[in-house]
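Box 3.1. Reading complex inputs
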Amino acid sequence: MFAFTVRRVAQAILVMLIISFIGFSIKHNFGDPVRELVGERVTPQERAEIREKLGLNDPFLVQYGRFLQSAVHGDLGRSFFFKKPVTEVILAKAPATLELVFCASLIVIGLSIPMGIYSAIHPKRFFSRLIMGFSIVGVSVPVFLTAILLIYIFSVELGWLPSFGRGETVRLFGFWDSGLLTRDGLLHLIMPSIALSSIMLPLFIRLIRSEMMEVLETEYVKFAWAKGLKPRRVWYVHAFKNTLLPVITVGGVQLGIMVAFTILTETVFQWQGMGAMFIESVSRADTALMVSYIVVVGFIFVVVNTMVDLIYGIVNPTVRIAGRK
Amino acid sequence: MGKVQAVLHLGTGIMANGDNRWHLPCKKKNHPEGRGVKRLIVRMFFVLAVTMLALGSTTQAATLKLAMDADPVSLDPHVQLSGGMLQYSHMVFDPLVRWTKDGKFEPRLAEKWELVNPTTTRFYLRKGVKFHSGNDFTAEDVVFTLARLKKSDDYKGLFENFAEAKVVDPHTVDLITKEPYGLVMAMGTYIFPMDKKFYTGADEKNGKTKDLIIKTDYSFANFNESGTGPFTVAEREQGVKTVFTRFAGYWDKNTGNVSEIILTPISENPTRVAALLSGDVDFIMPVPPTDLERVEKTDGLQLVTMSGSRIITFQLNQKRREEFANAKVRQAMAYAYNNVGVADKIMKGFATPAAQNSPQGYQGYNPDLQPRYDLDMAKKLMKEAGYEKGFECTMIAPNNRYVNDEKIAQAFVNMMSKIGIKVNLKTMPKAQYWDQFDAQVADIQMIGWHSDTEDSANFFEYLYMCPNKETGRGQYNSGNYCNQEVDDLTLASNSETDTAKRSAMLQKIEKILFDDAAFIPLHWQNLSWASKDNMNTEDIVNVMNFPYFGDLTIK
């Protein structure tokens, strides 16, 4: 277990190094941050002075070295736009994104498992076909379209749900602004969560369905039927448990992707999380913030995948985690 | 299976603990015998619901929920010269004078003014005005503010012609220019006096002086304000929301009744409109062209639009292409561009076709100059110039800077193909565009310009005077158009204080630029605001797009 952890941490550091290097090397293509900081009247000479002061004229490797040096000390640089350290900015925005991903995951898990199982057990029933049809539509409609449709139906036409933002938040532990504890905050969460889950939900229903159908054909399930076990026990205990293995693997990767997909959802709903922040930092060429976001999301990917590996070992004891021989 | 469930429960367990932290104390008193998870949960929700109802009913009537496409980047009005920062300045600060809708000057912190001698304008300041900090507003603050403006990277160019401000007595101040200057009053609209006492001294946080202007880092002024304006900043989370509350000691008692403004930046157009349509906000700016009709037709909403003053143009680089050095070719291109059609079809009527830089109402607006789309004429001119067979050239345009910029550029490419000019267009985001523009990487480049001085000479100075690195003139003249007459007239107009003479000079320049086809004028982008119909939106908006929210009255 210890060796596994050490190896994982080493891998994570390597991954982050690579990500930060890529992030740094493309940042020059996003334009000149100084442009976004000054009005149109500022002369090229004055702009050059500002660039010099910010150290933007140094060679790429010098800048990267400086970045790494301070990153080791926990300082990822300063956001030009927010005029604050980027770690502070990202920490302030992270709760919004994580809560959104959390709620969307709940929707995905809560709906995909029963729907997937149902449509696997009764593949020919009308409701199963309905689920499958819905999932095809769900996969093919882009997130921002879903989001805008939701806004127009539930906010503009019906007036049931708020159209943008996080609503009222409560501060927890001194830094975590949570929308989960107020009615207003929960109402604001509904549509963004649905929009975000709309990409993953159909995928998971289909995945669970096909895995389950496959498992139902295996010998041990046939044996279970032959033993005269109750259908419920065969389906939910014997078959479903084995269905879960691939679902967890895919789920881990998808969770990371979901964090990345918040970019679209957050932009449409003006949800003040890391995704919207990233898009804005790109358009403002706020490079320190951009690179840090990429590094942080990379970090989340690594952590989630590590956790998935651990859970995998717990669910399926035959799979031994590397390092535990 | 069991273990997976445990993992899932762990998630909900955290949530329940979170709830406990918050609501257990008040519950325990009422129900000391409370046991059982179910009952606990039911009660938690009950408490939640009650607290929410209580919180929900505290909203006040005169609160304005405002959504703009961006929020102010700083609390320091001198940190950046941009529309957003000026909109902010009009909320939290007061200028010496401000523009009225018909282009006149309205006294604000200056009650009256007079020209003492050709280089000195005397301002008599309003008495009894207080800053948000409680300090009294005096002539010292004006002197302090002008000195600070001259230190700001963004403003020092505009205030180049000003030498200094001198205190005459506590409520009288002289603004002294280096030479006679025709735009002293126009510049007065940019002088938003800042509280000298408040911004003087060393800041504990960074050990530097409080009046320092820092663009990219913490500074006292970036995070603290003390102006004389109608609103104070009560709460600010950059990019999320800013709450402004009415300043109780505001000198102007005969203005609007908005006691609180909650400003939320909503950058996505459809979301901003939806927020207004659903009633989540009361006022939005700008309204995207695609939704104008919908907003107008919705009951309970009002739409206000106005022809703007930002001119959109294409510049033809004469240094890169010998064809463009030929006035006939430039004229042919101007004749071949159908700006009325573009304003109508692509801009959906949300733009005013232009044949010159100055919009109506500017001193340089020349009523004789009208759009001149005529394809036959264009072909004839190309023939005369000897380019009957046409030629190929390159072009760049931004794709997120101006309304429909990419579509307009594509339309231009199509129109030029009709007179045999094959244009290879490349579009890019604004963050990358301006470096390319400066480097003059293409033969044709797009640029929109808003005159910071609300005066015609500013267009000529930046866009059409001969490029000169030392003086900074012609800084954005990527067409490299150079005409001594235009240069001389522009410089002469700056020191001309007689309005009629000055106006004649500026109109003459517009005529020269038009005849020479120094550039291709497209249109002025319109401005738009939408709000609920229970407020006097029409009265507070203006062509500069600085709504005077202090004057807003909600019925």
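In summary: The radius of gyration of chain A is 24 Å.
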